[in-house]
Design brief:
Blueprint (H helix, E strand, L loop, with lengths): L2 H6 L6 H4 L1 H4 L22 H4 L2 H4 L11 E6 L11 E2 L9 H14 L7 H11 L7 E5 L4 E2 L5 E2 L5 E2 L2 H10 L4 E4 L9 H10 L5 E3 L1 H4 L9 H10 L3 E4 L21 H5 L4 E4 L6 E3 L8 E3 H10 L7 E4 L9 H8 L8 E2 L15 H6 L5 H13 L1 H11 L1 E2 L2 E2 L2 H4 L2 H4 L7
Parallel strand pairs: 1-3, 3-7, 8-9, 9-10, 10-13, 13-14
Antiparallel strand pairs: 2-6, 4-5, 11-12, 15-16
Helix pairs in contact: 9-11, 16-17
C-alpha cells in the first residue's frame, strides 16, 4: 500500500466514523476539538523548552536512570522488519480495529519519505528528551492455543523479537528491548535463551489479546526459566481495550499472576490493572471486583514484596483517572511503582483529557496550556512532564518511581 494512501485513510476514522452528534456528547471529545496529533517538529521551540513547567519537571531527576519500560514497536510490515498486522486492521468493515490502528499510526507520527516501519523508528529516535534516557521497545508474539499451535486469525499484530533486538543494536544508547514469548509455544525456552543472548531486558505478555492464562500449569516451565535468568515479566493487567486478538478479558485478572509470583517470578503489572472487573478468585465467588483492587491486594501482601510491581503507563487516560488518584494518595505503594509511558498512546489525543485532569485538580491551568503544546511536539516528554506534575492534595509521585534503570538491569548474561 502506498504510504500517502495509507495515511490518507486516517480521514475516514475518528469522529466522522462514529457520528459527530454521538461522539461530541461523550467523554472522548477532544478538549480543543482536534482529534489527530499534528506531528510537529520534535525539536521544541525555545520558549516551550525553557518554560518553567517543563524545566521544573527535571528537579532532582537523574535522566541517566530513566528507562521508559513500555514503548510499543509498531509498523505495517512495509520493510524487512518482519512486522505483520492482522488484515482486519485495514478493513473498514471491522470498524473498531480499523479506527484504532489509524489512531495509533497518527500518534506515532512516522517520518515522511520512508517506509512506515522505518519512519516510526526514526521519529521515535528523535523524541529522546534527556541525556541517558532509554526507551524499552516491546516485541509482540503471536497468539497460540494450549497445543502450542499458532493462531494467526486471533493475532492482532506481530512484532518479531529479532526486529526489536536489531533496533537496539542500531541505537544502543537510546533503545533497550523486551522480548515477547508466548508460554504455550513448544520452543518458548529456546526463544527465551536467544532473547537473553540478544540482551533482552524482560518479557512482555498481553494475556487477554494473546490468549495466555498466567495461572495455567503450561506456564510453569517458562516461569522456571524466567527465575533462572532473573528476567522480569511485564504483564498487562485488567481489561484490554486497545487491541482485540483472543479477547478474553478474564485473562487480565491480576490474581491469575499468583502462580508466577509463587514461583519467584518478578512481575510488573502494566497500567496497575486499572480497567475493568474480574472475579475474586481468592474468595471463590462470582462477585466482580475491580481489577485495580485485585492488583493492589497483591501489592499489599508481604510475601510478594520485591516481586510485584506496577507500571504507571496510561494512568492519566480518561478511564483510569480515578485509580490514578488512588495511587497518588497511597505513598505506601510508591516503592512498588515504575514509570512508563505506553507510547504511542500518550499522543492519541482523545483518550487523555488535560481539561479533565485540571477539573479534578490534578494539574494547574498553566500546566494544561504548556502540556497541550508539548504533546504536539514530543509525546514522550509530554508524558514524563505530566507524570511529574500530577498530584493529589500536594502528593506527587516520588522521584524514585522515575529512576527505573536499576530495575531493568538485573538480567543475567550468557557466558
Amino acid at each position: 500500500m502506498q504510504r500517502r494512501n495509507f495515511i490518507g485513510l486516517l480521514g475516514l476514522s475518528g469522529a466522522s466514523v462514529y457520528g459527530f452528534n454521538v461522539l461530541k456528547k461523550s467523554e472522548y471529545w477532544p478538549d480543543d476539538n482536534t482529534f489527530f496529533n499534528p506531528c510537529l517538529n520534535s525539536q521544541l521551540p525555545p520558549i516551550l523548552a525553557n518554560h518553567n513547567v517543563v524545566r521544573s519537571a527535571f528537579a532532582d531527576i537523574d535522566t541517566t536512570q530513566i528507562w521508559d519500560g513500555h514503548i510499543h514497536l509498531i509498523g505495517i510490515g512495509d520493510s524487512a522488519s518482519g512486522i505483520w498486522v492482522n488484515p482486519n486492521s485495514f478493513n473498514p468493515f471491522y470498524l473498531k480495529k480499523y479506527v484504532q490502528f489509524r489512531f495509533f499510526l497518527n500518534a506515532s507520527c512516522p517520518s515522511p519519505n520512508m517506509a512506515i516501519d522505518e519512519g516510526f523508528v526514526n521519529r521515535l529516535a528523535s523524541l529522546t528528551w534527556g541525556t541517558g534516557v532509554r526507551f524499552l521497545l516491546l516485541a509482540f508474539d503471536h497468539s497460540y492455543n494450549e497445543k502450542g499451535e499458532r493462531l494467526l486469525k486471533q493475532t492482532p499484530f506481530y512484532t518479531p523479537n529479532d526486529y526489536a533486538a536489531s533496533i537496539h543494536r542500531q541505537y544502543p544508547h537510546q533503545f533497550e528491548w523486551l522480548a515477547s514469548i508466548h508460554p504455550y509455544r513448544k520452543d518458548c525456552i529456546e526463544v527465551l535463551e536467544k532473547a537473553v543472548a540478544n540482551q533482552a531486558r524482560g518479557v512482555k505478555w498481553l494475556p487477554p489479546a494473546m490468549g495466555i492464562d498466567p495461572s495455567s500449569p503450561l506456564c510453569d516451565r517458562f516461569y522456571k526459566a524466567l527465575v533462572y535468568w532473573d528476567i522480569p515479566l511485564l504483564c498487562h493487567g485488567g481489561d484490554e481495550q486497545a487491541i482485540d486478538g483472543s479477547h478474553h478479558q478474564k485473562l487480565g485478572n491480576p490474581l491469575l499472576l499468583r502462580r508466577a509470583l509463587d514461583q519467584g517470578v518478578k512481575v510488573v503489572v502494566a497500567h496497575c490493572a486499572s480497567l475493568g472487573q474480574n472475579r475474586d478468585l481468592d474468595k471463590g465467588t462470582a462477585t466482580l471486583v475491580s481489577n485495580f483492587d485485585l492488583f493492589t491486594r497483591l501489592l499489599d501482601e508481604s510475601a510478594y514484596k520485591g516481586q510485584i510491581f506496577g507500571d504507571i503507563s496510561a494512568m492519566t487516560q480518561i478511564k483510569r483517572v480515578k485509580y490514578l488518584k488512588k495511587l497518588l494518595a497511597h505513598p505506601d505503594w510508591h516503592s512498588q511503582l515504575l514509570y512508563a509511558s505506553d507510547y504511542p498512546l500518550p499522543a492519541v489525543i482523545p483518550i487523555t483529557s488535560l481539561k479533565l485532569l485540571h477539573e479534578q485538580q490534578l494539574i494547574t491551568a498553566e500546566q494544561v496550556n504548556i502540556l497541550s503544546q508539548l504533546r504536539q511536539h514530543n509525546a514522550l516528554l509530554f508524558d514524563f512532564v505530566l507524570a511529574r506534575h500530577i498530584q493529589v492534595e500536594g502528593q506527587h509521585f516520588p522521584t524514585s518511581i522515575f529512576h527505573t534503570r536499576p530495575f531493568w538491569t538485573g538480567v543475567k548474561q550468557l557466558v
